[in-house]
Amino acid sequence: MSELRDHDSVVTAQLVAKALSGSRRAIAQVVSLVENGGGAAREVMCSLYPRTGRAQVIGITGSPGTGKSTLVSALAKAYRGRGFTVGVVAVDPTSPFSGGAILGDRIRMRDLSGDPGVFIRSMATRGALGGLAATTSDVVRVLDAVGYQVILIETVGVGQAEVDVVRVAHTVLVVEAPGLGDDIQTLKAGIMEIADVFVVNKADLPGTDAVVSALRAAISLGRGALTYSGHHQLEMPARSNPAASGASDDSWQVPVHEVAALDHVGIDALVETIGAHAAYLHRSGLWQQREKERIESDLTGRLKQLVIQCLMAQLKAGEWETILESIAARELDPQTAAARLMGRLTNA
């Protein structure tokens, strides 16, 4: 058995070496290993992690129908035109009934498939909430490690509370579009509060001015009470003027960009703004702060998974079902059940 494990480790190491040398097939295989998890995934990430931290990661999120895939394709072409290599991670929803996913985002980006400087990976959520798949951050790290300079993450069509992209991306674009029937959406909490840049796509359609006005009004209202300090870091200081709160005149003012991605209108200006935001993050120290927050979130999530795995490994056959039945019968409450299980883990 140990010889088999050693052989598997050698094969994994060889695969990682090929990926680092630029083999697209090897990169795809490494990504698959990471998605599938297990010991091979840990070996891969252990080998690649020291090489990460160099790419600029851009998240593209928003409601269904806003044209996120078209925008991602246009951004990829713009960055390629500037000489950058581009990785694309497109997350599609998994059916709660069949467990399958269409992975249609990749189909919509087929015009990028012939470019050797672009690598596209479609991922299914596999039941994960928050707009991303559970292993999205690791897939991003793989693409970062093998040398892709800009990584674009397209989330599933998300709602107000699905904001996990902030834990992965340096810059988050929240995409809106005219004609979706709910201008008030722009004023709601959750997804609207994570934007570093608002993008109004399909700006050639009627109703664009109303969406842009609503977004700018929401931003203007927020400036009266909120100081931008990074993803999910909107603080509410008691202040009557910027000096009283310590707010800097150099703070990032969230812009609203109008684009028509299908015709590549406004894309170059958007790329410039994304670059300006990255420069602001470095200048203000928020780049390092966000990196620490991402690491903390990732580590906490992995610890939770390991704790649950350890607990489940200690249970006897059928014991989990017995506990669930006791809770359902109101013979045991969930808090007591969780405390007893944790007690078994700490006493082991």
Describe the structure.
The chain is α/β, with parallel strands linked by helices. The chain folds into 3 domains: 1-50, no CATH class; 52-284, P-loop containing nucleotide triphosphate hydrolases (Rossmann fold, 3-Layer(aba) Sandwich), CATH 3.40.50.300; 302-346, no CATH class. The protein has helices spanning 2-20, 24-36, 39-48, 68-81, 104-108, 136-145, 208-223, 242-245, 267-284, 286-314, 319-328, 334-346, and strands at residues 56-62, 86-92, 118-124, 150-154, 171-176, 197-200, 256-258. The protein has a 7-stranded parallel beta sheet, with helices on both faces. β2, α5 and β3 (118-124) form a beta-alpha-beta unit. The protein is globular. The model is unreliable at 95-102, 127-131 and 232-248 (pLDDT under 50).
Task: Give the name of the CATH architecture of the largest domain.
Answer: 3-Layer(aba) Sandwich
* Rounded average pLDDT: 81
The CATH superfamily of the largest domain is: P-loop containing nucleotide triphosphate hydrolases
N/C terminus separation: 27 Å
Could you tell me the CATH topology label of the largest domain.
Answer: Rossmann fold
Number of helices: 12
